[in-house]
Design brief:
- The chain is an alpha+beta fold.
- It folds into 2 domains: about 80 residues, Glutaredoxin (3-Layer(aba) Sandwich); about 100 residues, Glutathione S-transferase Yfyf (Class Pi), Chain A, domain 2 (Up-down Bundle), CATH 1.20.1050.
- The chain is built from 8 helices and 4 strands; from the N terminus they run E-H-E-H-E-E-H-H-H-H-H-H.
- Strand 1, helix 1 and strand 2 form a beta-alpha-beta unit.
- The longest helix is centred in the last third of the chain and has 25 residues.
- The model has no long low-confidence stretch (mean pLDDT about 95).
Length: about 220
Protein backbone atom coordinates (compact mmCIF):
# COMPACT_ATOMS: atom_id res chain seq x y z
CA UNK A 1 0.00 0.00 0.00
CA UNK A 2 1.49 3.40 -0.97
CA UNK A 3 2.29 5.83 1.80
CA UNK A 4 -0.47 8.27 2.65
CA UNK A 5 0.61 11.88 2.54
CA UNK A 6 0.38 13.71 5.86
CA UNK A 7 -2.94 15.20 6.92
CA UNK A 8 -2.94 18.86 7.87
CA UNK A 9 -4.97 19.07 11.05
CA UNK A 10 -6.31 22.40 12.29
CA UNK A 11 -6.79 22.15 16.02
CA UNK A 12 -7.66 24.15 19.11
CA UNK A 13 -6.85 22.54 22.46
CA UNK A 14 -9.61 21.41 24.79
CA UNK A 15 -12.26 21.75 22.14
CA UNK A 16 -14.30 19.47 19.87
CA UNK A 17 -11.20 18.92 17.77
CA UNK A 18 -9.53 17.02 20.63
CA UNK A 19 -11.61 13.97 19.77
CA UNK A 20 -10.47 14.05 16.15
CA UNK A 21 -6.86 14.43 17.29
CA UNK A 22 -7.34 11.36 19.46
CA UNK A 23 -8.63 9.49 16.42
CA UNK A 24 -5.53 10.49 14.46
CA UNK A 25 -3.42 9.02 17.24
CA UNK A 26 -5.50 5.82 17.33
CA UNK A 27 -5.10 5.45 13.56
CA UNK A 28 -1.36 6.19 13.80
CA UNK A 29 -1.96 8.57 10.93
CA UNK A 30 0.76 10.90 9.63
CA UNK A 31 -0.34 14.45 10.39
CA UNK A 32 0.91 17.99 10.68
CA UNK A 33 -0.84 20.03 13.31
CA UNK A 34 -1.71 23.71 13.00
CA UNK A 35 -2.91 25.13 16.27
CA UNK A 36 -5.42 27.95 16.73
CA UNK A 37 -5.44 30.02 19.89
CA UNK A 38 -9.16 30.31 20.61
CA UNK A 39 -8.42 32.36 23.72
CA UNK A 40 -7.05 34.99 21.35
CA UNK A 41 -9.96 34.58 18.94
CA UNK A 42 -7.86 33.19 16.08
CA UNK A 43 -10.76 31.00 14.95
CA UNK A 44 -12.69 34.20 14.14
CA UNK A 45 -9.93 35.87 12.18
CA UNK A 46 -9.96 36.06 8.38
CA UNK A 47 -7.14 33.53 7.92
CA UNK A 48 -9.21 30.77 9.49
CA UNK A 49 -12.59 31.94 8.23
CA UNK A 50 -11.37 31.14 4.72
CA UNK A 51 -11.06 27.54 5.95
CA UNK A 52 -14.34 27.43 7.83
CA UNK A 53 -16.61 30.50 7.63
CA UNK A 54 -18.32 29.33 10.83
CA UNK A 55 -15.06 29.57 12.76
CA UNK A 56 -15.37 25.96 13.97
CA UNK A 57 -12.70 23.36 14.62
CA UNK A 58 -11.58 20.80 13.67
CA UNK A 59 -10.77 20.95 9.98
CA UNK A 60 -8.42 18.88 7.88
CA UNK A 61 -6.73 19.44 4.55
CA UNK A 62 -5.62 16.36 2.66
CA UNK A 63 -4.71 15.70 -0.96
CA UNK A 64 -5.98 19.12 -1.96
CA UNK A 65 -9.37 18.66 -0.29
CA UNK A 66 -10.78 20.45 2.72
CA UNK A 67 -12.96 18.55 5.17
CA UNK A 68 -14.83 20.31 7.99
CA UNK A 69 -17.52 19.08 10.38
CA UNK A 70 -16.45 16.74 13.13
CA UNK A 71 -18.43 13.70 12.02
CA UNK A 72 -17.37 14.06 8.38
CA UNK A 73 -13.75 14.14 9.55
CA UNK A 74 -14.24 10.98 11.61
CA UNK A 75 -15.76 9.13 8.68
CA UNK A 76 -13.04 10.34 6.30
CA UNK A 77 -10.13 9.46 8.56
CA UNK A 78 -11.35 6.07 9.72
CA UNK A 79 -12.05 5.02 6.14
CA UNK A 80 -8.65 6.31 5.02
CA UNK A 81 -6.90 3.84 7.34
CA UNK A 82 -8.89 0.58 7.04
CA UNK A 83 -5.97 -1.41 8.46
CA UNK A 84 -6.67 0.19 11.87
CA UNK A 85 -10.01 -1.63 11.99
CA UNK A 86 -11.95 1.33 13.40
CA UNK A 87 -14.53 1.58 10.59
CA UNK A 88 -16.65 -1.28 9.23
CA UNK A 89 -16.26 -1.67 5.47
CA UNK A 90 -19.06 -0.50 3.19
CA UNK A 91 -20.29 -4.08 2.72
CA UNK A 92 -20.09 -4.96 6.42
CA UNK A 93 -23.42 -5.45 8.21
CA UNK A 94 -22.14 -3.12 10.96
CA UNK A 95 -21.61 -0.23 8.54
CA UNK A 96 -25.17 1.03 8.94
CA UNK A 97 -25.17 1.03 12.77
CA UNK A 98 -21.70 2.61 12.72
CA UNK A 99 -22.91 5.51 10.56
CA UNK A 100 -26.08 5.77 12.60
CA UNK A 101 -24.20 6.43 15.84
CA UNK A 102 -21.79 8.87 14.26
CA UNK A 103 -24.59 10.94 12.75
CA UNK A 104 -26.77 10.61 15.87
CA UNK A 105 -24.07 12.50 17.72
CA UNK A 106 -24.29 15.54 15.43
CA UNK A 107 -27.98 15.39 14.57
CA UNK A 108 -29.45 14.67 18.00
CA UNK A 109 -26.94 14.74 20.85
CA UNK A 110 -25.25 18.07 20.07
CA UNK A 111 -28.52 20.05 19.63
CA UNK A 112 -29.91 18.55 22.83
CA UNK A 113 -26.80 19.35 24.84
CA UNK A 114 -26.65 22.91 23.52
CA UNK A 115 -30.29 23.49 24.45
CA UNK A 116 -29.63 22.14 27.94
CA UNK A 117 -26.47 24.22 28.32
CA UNK A 118 -28.36 27.38 27.35
CA UNK A 119 -31.31 26.39 29.55
CA UNK A 120 -33.61 26.52 26.54
CA UNK A 121 -36.77 24.53 26.12
CA UNK A 122 -36.61 22.11 23.19
CA UNK A 123 -38.74 22.77 20.15
CA UNK A 124 -42.08 20.95 19.94
CA UNK A 125 -41.44 17.26 19.35
CA UNK A 126 -42.74 17.44 15.80
CA UNK A 127 -39.94 19.92 15.02
CA UNK A 128 -37.18 18.98 17.45
CA UNK A 129 -34.17 17.19 15.93
CA UNK A 130 -33.89 15.10 19.08
CA UNK A 131 -37.40 14.76 20.51
CA UNK A 132 -36.73 15.24 24.21
CA UNK A 133 -33.44 15.21 26.05
CA UNK A 134 -34.44 12.12 28.03
CA UNK A 135 -35.52 10.15 24.97
CA UNK A 136 -32.35 11.15 23.11
CA UNK A 137 -30.09 10.10 25.99
CA UNK A 138 -32.10 6.98 26.76
CA UNK A 139 -31.66 5.75 23.21
CA UNK A 140 -27.91 6.07 23.64
CA UNK A 141 -27.65 4.55 27.11
CA UNK A 142 -29.82 1.58 26.14
CA UNK A 143 -27.22 0.82 23.48
CA UNK A 144 -24.29 1.35 25.86
CA UNK A 145 -25.85 -0.99 28.42
CA UNK A 146 -26.04 -3.80 25.88
CA UNK A 147 -22.33 -4.18 25.06
CA UNK A 148 -18.91 -2.70 25.87
CA UNK A 149 -18.88 -0.56 22.72
CA UNK A 150 -21.46 0.87 20.35
CA UNK A 151 -20.97 -1.89 17.80
CA UNK A 152 -20.55 -4.72 20.29
CA UNK A 153 -17.26 -6.10 21.55
CA UNK A 154 -14.93 -4.08 19.28
CA UNK A 155 -13.95 -0.42 19.53
CA UNK A 156 -14.73 1.77 16.52
CA UNK A 157 -14.16 5.40 15.56
CA UNK A 158 -17.70 6.07 16.81
CA UNK A 159 -16.55 5.21 20.33
CA UNK A 160 -13.66 7.67 20.10
CA UNK A 161 -16.18 10.38 19.22
CA UNK A 162 -18.68 9.45 21.90
CA UNK A 163 -16.13 8.71 24.61
CA UNK A 164 -14.63 12.15 24.17
CA UNK A 165 -18.02 13.88 24.03
CA UNK A 166 -19.43 12.14 27.08
CA UNK A 167 -16.23 12.79 29.02
CA UNK A 168 -16.63 16.54 28.55
CA UNK A 169 -20.40 16.74 28.91
CA UNK A 170 -20.46 14.75 32.14
CA UNK A 171 -17.58 16.85 33.48
CA UNK A 172 -19.66 20.00 32.97
CA UNK A 173 -22.86 18.46 34.31
CA UNK A 174 -24.70 18.52 31.00
CA UNK A 175 -25.10 14.73 30.96
CA UNK A 176 -25.74 12.73 34.15
CA UNK A 177 -22.93 10.52 35.43
CA UNK A 178 -24.86 7.28 35.50
CA UNK A 179 -23.01 3.99 35.96
CA UNK A 180 -23.54 3.04 32.31
CA UNK A 181 -22.11 6.32 31.03
CA UNK A 182 -19.26 6.47 33.54
CA UNK A 183 -18.17 2.91 32.80
CA UNK A 184 -18.25 3.55 29.06
CA UNK A 185 -16.29 6.81 29.32
CA UNK A 186 -13.62 5.15 31.45
CA UNK A 187 -13.39 2.20 29.08
CA UNK A 188 -12.82 4.45 26.08
CA UNK A 189 -10.73 7.22 27.60
CA UNK A 190 -8.34 4.93 29.47
CA UNK A 191 -6.52 4.41 26.19
CA UNK A 192 -3.00 5.81 25.59
CA UNK A 193 -4.25 8.03 22.76
CA UNK A 194 -6.52 9.96 25.13
CA UNK A 195 -3.74 10.41 27.69
CA UNK A 196 -1.40 11.71 25.01
CA UNK A 197 -3.91 14.22 23.62
CA UNK A 198 -4.92 15.36 27.11
CA UNK A 199 -1.29 16.14 27.92
CA UNK A 200 -0.73 17.88 24.58
CA UNK A 201 -3.85 19.98 25.05
CA UNK A 202 -2.95 20.98 28.60
CA UNK A 203 0.43 22.27 27.44
CA UNK A 204 -1.05 24.11 24.44
CA UNK A 205 -3.81 25.66 26.55
CA UNK A 206 -1.27 26.92 29.08
CA UNK A 207 0.84 28.41 26.30
CA UNK A 208 -2.22 30.10 24.78
CA UNK A 209 -3.28 31.55 28.13
CA UNK A 210 0.22 32.90 28.69
CA UNK A 211 0.28 34.43 25.20
CA UNK A 212 -3.00 36.24 25.80
CA UNK A 213 -1.85 37.58 29.17
CA UNK A 214 1.42 38.74 27.62
CA UNK A 215 -0.44 40.55 24.83
CA UNK A 216 -2.68 42.29 27.40
CA UNK A 217 0.23 43.37 29.61
Amino acid sequence: MPAIEPITFLHAPQSRSSGALTLLEELRAPYEIRVLNMKAGEQRQSAYLTVNPLGKVPAIQHRGALVTEQVAIFIYLADLFPEAGLAPAIDDAQRGPYLRWLVYYAASFEPAVVDRSMQREPAPQAMSPYGTFDSMLGTLTDRLAASPYLLGEALSAADILWGSALHWTTMFGLVPETAVITDYVQRVTNRPSFAKVTAMDAQLAAEHEAAVKSAEA
